[in-house]
Structures are given as C-alpha cells and as structure tokens.
C-alpha cells in the first residue's frame, strides 16, 4: 500500500512519456502484490465456516473503490490540477499504510490466539505436519500449485468469468445504444448499475457460502445459472424500458461478481496455507488473460455476425465457467 501511494505520487510528479510509463507500470506492479498477501491473512485468521463473509467484505472494496474513485478524483481534478487526482490519493495510501503497520499480523498465533480450523477443510485451513515444515518453497510450488488439478480448473473457470465480465463492461453500453437507438452517454449511465449489482452479488455470495458450511462450488453454480438466465432474458427482450434495462444490468453484475469473489477463495482453500499468496497470484494471472483477450474476439464476432454473437459469447463463457467448476466440485466431495 505504501509503495502504491509512492507510485501515485511519482505519477503526479512525472513528466514525459517515459516517466509516465514507468510510474504507471510500477503502480500496477505493486498493486498486484496486495491481493495474494490479503488472501493468505484471511485464510489464517478465519475458519472455513466464517471466511466467506470476510472474504466477500474485502472483495467489495474494489466495487466501492470503483464507485468512489471517479467522484473523488473528478472533484480533485476539477478544482485543482490533474496531478491532484494522483497526488492526494497517493498521500492517503502512504499515511494509511504506516498507520496499519502496528496492527497487522500474519497469523493469530503471533498474538497468542488459536483458531480452530475445520479438519475437513482443505490443507490451507490447518497447520502442516511437523515434518512438512521444512519443505522448500520450490517443492511446495511444484507439488501443491503447479500440479494441483483443482487450482487449474479454477483458473480456467475464472478466465471465462473475467472474459465475460470485461466484455460486458466494455461492450454492453454499445449494445444498448445500437439495439435501442439511444445515446451512448445514456447507455453508459444504465450500465453503471452493474457495479451496484456487483457489490450486492459479491457480498451475498460470501454470506451464502458460509450458510452452507463452506460449500462454495454449489453457490457459484447457482449464480452462474442465474447469469445464464439473465443473458437469455436480454437476448429474448432486446428492447425494453429503461427501468427493466437497469434491473437486468444490475442482475448481470450481481450474478457475475458472486463467482468471481468465491473462485479466489476456493483457490486459497485448495492449497497449503504457506503458498496461498502464490496460488492466488497464479489464479489472478490466468484470470486476467481472459480480460485481456476479451476485446478482440467480441469485436470480431459483433462485426461479422451482429449483437446476437456478443450475447452468445457471454452465454458460452458462462457455461464454460460452470463446466470447469464441475470437476472441482467432484474432487471436493470425494476428498471429504
């Protein structure tokens, strides 16, 4: 967090293409480090039956940030110079980072607490056997991450989720503008409801998964089924009222953000607790490939076959994500 703040301050003070490029790349690099560290801390401090709530609570921060950032930075840029939009948030991150240092601990044992993890949970929920404590990081990486079938199934499933989520964020306002003959600005305003639905979907998925004693795969499959139904509704009724549009878009955000939240949690729970950060990092890397490649195929299909192809890609990605969750569910049920 402190390095992120420094990178933002550097961005505000930078000049020239090279300076902007270096500080922007550094900002992305240090921001990406945080997720794995937080994932490990959450798996250490909370049991399987309560972890969904706190994981979802943490995940909603991206929705809140996505909502507040344009408002705060827009105010700063409008009333000062553009540099204020990076400078003041950067200073805030630095101050907050230093304030958190005395309070943060990696494990509850560091403060004398003992967390009774579920013995039926994954290996990340309990301490390793005494003889395994000396395993090298490379051995853990190879045996429990790179050869972990569950993790790779989850990564591919999440790749589909990021593909359709990024696709909807980038293209749905164009879809509305073209199919309903409205201005792009109005369409973008309607699509903004996706973040509100995503916030509710993220939080509710974690709570529901705790209510079913940490069985998170069935919850994700229910959300994906809801996502498929919503996409079909949009395809069957392309021209509706603004209210129906807003509700449908909010439901798209609701149903896609639920699985996105829980996939990371299931990945963290599927590996040894000492390599949770590495596992979630690999999951995120594969997932963001889906977001990165979504633009070209969607543009190609829409250009060649129209907007029905866009909806077909969204539906296909939903089914693909569900398909790769099924073997994870099978492995989890038979392992227990």
How would you characterize the overall build of this protein?
This protein is mostly helical and 336 residues long. It is built from 13 helices and no strands. The chain has helices at residues 2-13, 16-45, 48-79, 84-100, 137-146, 149-180, 184-191, 193-211, 216-236, 242-269, 276-293, 295-305, 307-335. It is globular. Residues 120-127 have low confidence and may be disordered.
Short characterization:
By secondary structure, the protein is mainly α. The chain has helices spanning 2-13, 16-45, 48-79, 84-100, 137-146, 149-180, 184-191, 193-211, 216-236, 242-269, 276-293, 295-305, 307-335.
Along the chain, the helix and strand elements come as HHHHHHHHHHHHH
> How many beta-strand segments?
0
What percentage of residues falls in helices of 4 or more residues?
A: over 70%
Main sheet: strands, sense, barrel: none
Average pLDDT level: 82
Content of β-strand: under 5%
- Number of H- or I-type helical stretches: 13
| Span of the ends, CA to CA | 38 Å
- Structural class given helices, strands, pairing? mainly alpha
Q: In terms of per-residue confidence, which ranges show pLDDT below 50 for 5 or more consecutive residues?
A: 120-127
Blueprint of the fold:
Elements: H1 2-13, H2 16-45, H3 48-79, H4 84-100, H5 137-146, H6 149-180, H7 184-191, H8 193-211, H9 216-236, H10 242-269, H11 276-293, H12 295-305, H13 307-335
Helix pairs in contact: 1-2, 1-4, 2-3, 2-11, 3-4, 3-8, 3-10, 6-7, 6-10, 6-11, 6-13, 8-9, 8-10, 9-10, 9-13, 10-11, 12-13
């Amino acid at each position: 967090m402190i390095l992120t703040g420094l990178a933002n301050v550097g961005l505000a003070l930078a000049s020239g293409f090279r300076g902007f490029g270096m500080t922007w790349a550094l900002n992305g690099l240090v921001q990406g480090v945080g997720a794995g560290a937080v994932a490990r801390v959450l798996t250490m401090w909370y049991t399987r039956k309560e972890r969904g709530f706190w994981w979802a609570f943490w995940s909603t921060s991206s929705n809140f940030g996505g909502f507040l950032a344009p408002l705060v930075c827009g105010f700063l840029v409008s009333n000062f110079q553009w540099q204020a939009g990076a400078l003041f948030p950067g200073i805030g991150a630095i101050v907050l980072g230093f304030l958190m240092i005395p309070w943060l601990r990696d494990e509850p044992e560091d403060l004398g607490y003992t967390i009774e993890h579920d013995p039926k949970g994954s290996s990340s929920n309990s301490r390793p056997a005494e003889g395994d404590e000396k395993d090298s990081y490379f051995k853990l990486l190879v045996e429990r991450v790179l050869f972990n079938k569950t993790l790779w199934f989850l990564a591919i499933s999440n790749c589909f989720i990021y593909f359709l989520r990024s696709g909807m964020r980038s293209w749905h306002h164009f879809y509305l503008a073209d199919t309903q003959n409205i201005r792009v600005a109005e369409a973008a305003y309607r699509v903004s409801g996706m973040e509100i639905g995503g916030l509710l979907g993220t939080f509710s998925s974690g709570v529901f998964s705790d209510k079913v004693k940490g069985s998170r795969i069935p919850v994700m499959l229910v959300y994906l089924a809801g996502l498929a139904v919503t996409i079909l509704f949009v395809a069957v009724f392309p021209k509706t009222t603004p209210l129906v549009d807003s509700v449908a878009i909010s439901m798209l955000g609701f149903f896609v953000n639920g699985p996105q939240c829980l996939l990371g949690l299931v990945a963290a729970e599927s590996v040894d607790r000492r390599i949770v950060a590495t596992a979630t990092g690999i999951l995120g890397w594969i997932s963001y490939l889906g977001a990165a490649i979504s633009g070209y195929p969607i543009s190609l299909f829409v250009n060649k076959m129209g907007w029905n192809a866009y909806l077909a890609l969204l539906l296909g990605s939903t089914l693909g994500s569900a398909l790769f969750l099924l073997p994870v569910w099978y492995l989890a049920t038979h392992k227990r």
